[in-house]
Design goal:
59% helix; 0% strand
């Protein structure tokens, strides 16, 4: 489900605020994959470029939750491990019809 206020929170300069928004996105999102997400996916994929690794990991968890795809990073994943997960999401997104 689309959460415009939470997605807007990712524009904040405060890393802690963005981390809290990411966790809330996971907690309040759908419990199972949602059928139509084309309106939300571009914003979520853009958030995979957040400078904070925990925010990026949370976004991969949310993407896994709403799409059913298996590429989920965990908090604490860093460097190449997190980058590999983010890369899988970005490659997948290129195949999603607009």
């Amino acid at each position: 489900m689309y959460h415009p206020l939470l997605l807007a929170a990712f524009q904040d300069e405060d890393t802690t605020f963005r981390q809290i928004a990411a966790v809330q996105l996971i907690r309040t999102g759908p419990k199972e994959p949602a059928p139509s997400l084309n309106y939300e996916l571009p914003q979520l994929i853009h958030l995979l470029d957040d400078p904070d690794e925990d925010v990026r990991a949370s976004i991969t968890q949310y993407l896994t939750k709403i799409t059913g795809k298996p590429w989920k990073a965990h908090h604490g994943d860093r460097g190449a491990l997190l980058a590999g997960t983010v890369s899988k999401w970005k490659q997948w997104f290129k195949t999603v019809p607009n």
